[in-house]
Amino acid sequence: MGTYQTQCDFVFILLSVDNTNSGQDLNVYTIDFDQSINFTPIFSNGTAQVTGVSIYNVFPGKYSSNIFTSFSNDFSINNSITINYSCELIDFKTLNYTVFTYNNNSTSNSIFNMGAVIFFNVKSPIQSIYTPSSHYSYTSAFGERMSFFVIYSTLNFNEFNSLNILFWDENFLNVTYPQVNYKNSNNKNTQIITYPSKIDNFIQYGVNTFPLYMFTSNATNKNPFIYSIGQSGSPDFPVPIYQSKNGDLTYLGKFSDVKYPSNVTVFCQYDDKILPIINISYNMTELPIYINGKIDITHIPPNETNLVNTFIFTLFGNSTHKYDYSMIRCITEQIQKIFYFPFGFKHGTNFNFETKVSFLQQLKSSSTGNKYNYQNNIFIIPPNQYINSTGEKPEIVFFEMIHLIDCNFLIRIKMKDFLYIYIHNDLGFKVIGFESLVGMENDVGLYEFVYDYITNEFVGLDVYDTLGRSRRYNVGDYISLNPITTINPSHRKLNSYLFNNVSFLLNDIDVTNKSVDNILYFNYDGVDTNTPIIFILSDYVSIYYQINNITFGSWNSTISKFQVEFTVPANTQLGNFPFILMIGVGVPLVSEVLPDSHQLRIKSTYFDAFGPIFENIIKINNGNLIGWRFIISDPINGFLKGRIIIRGEMDGSIYTFNLNENNIIKGDIYLGEYETNITLSSVCASQYYLITEVELWDTSLNLNQFSTWKVFNLLKNPFINYLNDSETNRIYKQCNGVNDGIDESPPVLLSFDANRSVHSDGSQIISFNFQVFDEDTGLKDEQFPTVYITTGYLRVIEGKSKLLYKNNTTAIFTCDIEIPYAFGYKQDIIFSVYGLINNGGYFSGYSSECLKNNSFIYSIPDLPFVERLFIDDTSKITSSGNKLWIMGTKFGPNQLVHIKYYTDTDFSQISQPTRVYGVTMLIEDVKPTDKPFIIKIVDSSPISVNNKESNHFVVNPKVFKYPPTLFPTLSPIPTNKPQKCIGEPECGGKNQGYCSQSGCICYQPWVGIDCGSQVIIIPQPSTNTSTPTVEIPIVPGNNNNTNNNQTTNYFIYKSLISIVSLRELDFQSKTIKSFTFDKWIFTTITNSKSKYESIILNENTTTNITVNIEWFKDSTNISFANSQITIDASSVKYTIEISEYKFSNNLNQLQLIMSASFETDNNNDICSLTEFGDSSNDHNSNYFKIQIDDHSLYGRFIKRAIIDNYVRSIDNVLLDSSMETIKTPSTSQSFIGITIPNYKQSIIVDPDFSVLIDSKSVSNDEENSICKSKSKLTTTQLIGIIIGSVGFSIVIIFSITYFIIKKHLDSRFTKSFDKKLKNLTENKENK
Q: The whole model's pTM is what?
């Protein structure tokens, strides 16, 4: 029903069942004539029938209709049902609707041109809306209790537009929405640059190559409205491609028209006016395109007797039209196959050639002939044996569609007499053959295959049997009535605009010269958490290649939200970042109409949505060397990679050049020089060599393309600076000899052998060896023939040959082709070889029939079915690990998945699949890793396939990296209790700190709980390449701090800090397991940063420990675990990560045990003191302090860590009471435990270390002090080491030696002290 309609339509589905099993047909009818009722049989199985009951044009009111069912030959035996229904018109007063309008706050141009989105929440769908104005367009969609309409913005110069939606009772709904293109812009530029600079007679030398123009806006508020109009009267809009550092935005547009001579005018907004800024009149010589149908084709009647299941038919023809390398199309039934040169080219040149190609058709058929369309030539190929089977069709007896992950679906079908399935998806179609067979029972086969439905939904499939009969099944069609089974849809139709609680992990992102990983969070009420979530980047950088910029969402059970991880490209468009979100399939959400609160905002100094271009081109034509020298420019993003294809215009020879940074002759990725050179034989044919294809990518994957035969984007042309030179991609090579060196006798095949072999892993290989002869000019260098293997329904595989031997006249080639699983089963396979090219400009090829006529091997009949355990693909996985679906063949219940991670020497993990089907299985325990890993499947069943172990398959996880400051917090992080301010004077006095509720707050550079310490500025310490150890000597006279009370006594102090062990605790804090760290792998990252890696093994699980140590010369603010931390000058920061640990129990936790010891050679009357408590300078850490006389070792332990990508609290405890410690006036040792809660994936901690000076010594009056005598100690300068630690995950030995040199040092004490510390550590590790 529409908004202005006053009648209703109804459709009911009626099931009739014959409980007597009489076998008679059923009849459905009515004797009511109040309404026009139609009956349509839908499905019947002999004892039951489904009938569609349709009632149209029903006026408002309540109705009842009596529907009868009976045997078709006996109306006396019947039954009836009463259907009650009512037609209710739309009540405007109670109508529930929602309107989204274009977000006019965006400074960027609209991509989708959507002015407004309207959806009505109604019982029955509103099929159309009515408005008296025709100056708008809309599309509609329907979901569950939802009707949805998109209103597209019209081209006018009003800042806002309005329309009225009329209803049957003369009520109306007014919708006012912004004009998405015309905005209040203050642009004051009208200058334009054209490419080429002079346009009068434009010669097109690439497909979709047109004159272009660039316009740069100097608007400071919003982008101006700019468009062009030609003779068609339809506006064409340029796209933004660059933004400079000063904010000026550059557009690129085209002067294209429907006919020539052309007249095109460009209009641009200048303040509040629309002005014509340029008018171009030009003529164009269009590129001659090879048109399908220019090959005159006939077919040879089949005479094949060697094959078992099929027969060969051959098509041949000739053409005198120039071939431009465009595709060759063949169609039969619904199957379309695209071929490219050299397939089918028998002999000749591209100017005059013959074609000959062989295909297979089933030997038996219920059809009198199969229709083939080859290059628009239609043929009817009759079967070898006609089987009359009128009315019989293949039938599915079981159907199931299972959603796996993302948009991967498993389809399971049972049927008899199967040949293949033809199925659609959003990328076109696919033919599913016997590779999907997973089992047979009573001649009924079970077939399984995994298919993707990303932007389109599953609509149905066609099944074919061995006689060529087919049946179409659509969504909703019945398979069975007992139980009732239908072809179910892939997705639930949902309105994506109903999402809520929307947020981004990052917003107001700066993407200047860097891409940024981000997460979208949202909720959607009332849906399964396994619902497919599709996210499409739609900015100008990504929009042209959407299929490569699709990511999928998932349910995050920890925070009870859906999340989508995605990457914002570097230097993308500024302002609101456009995207499409689809929840299920139904109504896609376009971000341009969302409110500000739902927008992702982008900042950048630059914008670059244009790929690399040729800044300069020089042709090379020197003797036998031809080619091009290019200067490739991409000033913002830089050139990443490229591909340039050069072809011989006459002989079809092909040369492919892959370019990247390694091919730079001089320059850099922003402006670099490259060459593509071809060395020809001295014997050659005169011809042009053409650049036929170019692909140039920048580092943000902006792609500029050119082709002489493929249709590409009209604007992104790498030859933009050479549009006035139609010869720039052509070089003519003049060769010596009769007839310019042209040899019209094509190469000849002297031998052709094929051998099939089955390897131990179940793979089938067909190895070809063949010899080619050309007496006159010989075979052309660097040209390798292609071998093709063909089976039924146009399935063709190919392999490029390799050269074994070559002389002046003869070449020997080899080619190995692996046969895909079940390829050719219950059919046959045939061979052909094409692309034999001589030095005289001629090519040749051999179809299957040609091979047969020359007595070469041309087929293998009745290829057997070789079962094989094989991994073909996997679902996508991120660096967070967890679930992985594996796709392949011959999967079963007695199989395990073995995993080898990047640092493993062998397969270290064995995973038990949690769900197993014949072609896919699920494992759910992949460890977090940012490196590729290898999987294999091992079969332990007594009866297995050829191979007990599958192939090794490399899985490449998608790595997302997020700033550690923005990890979500699972629960509130506890803060320290208020503390008493200490010190004499309090907090060091007014110049050093002040007293707050949390304790002393220090002014820089003062630190400590009493603000009595300062940082010592020292040189960067040397790097230990064996263990993550830092030794910091204090060089006499090298610190920048002075103290008037500096002592005249000279003693050595040494400290040792280490992690004694990592242990697992149960819920009662009892030790379950304990580990130490023995070996480290060292890597230098920069001059000031190093990495150390170690592992521990626990129940077949490898836990990786990675430590990054970085030296900070200057004071720096960093972020860790959502907390701001100041790293003092001359400090060392540790970033430590521990990967997955396999806990014995989910209630258990880990504890890192740290030992801290301090000792001196001072034998005077001194004291030592150990303290542990809450720090005052921040609200979320503990402090630890060992002090001996006037020196101290000071530590800070933050009470938070990043655990499984979330900020969580941790506990720090002093363990001295439960462990053996040393406590004397000159030696003190303590143990601190850092307790980490149970986790799944990883933990990250981030400690830092500094050296400080203090001004107070330990007194024998202080509580818990250990003293040599009761004599009063002098107050002298204290030198301390402050170690700020988030937590430790490794054995860290931090040995700091203090040299106070004003008398000779005692070397014997130093040696003795080193020995004591070594023994101390070893004893604790062995406990």
A: 0.75
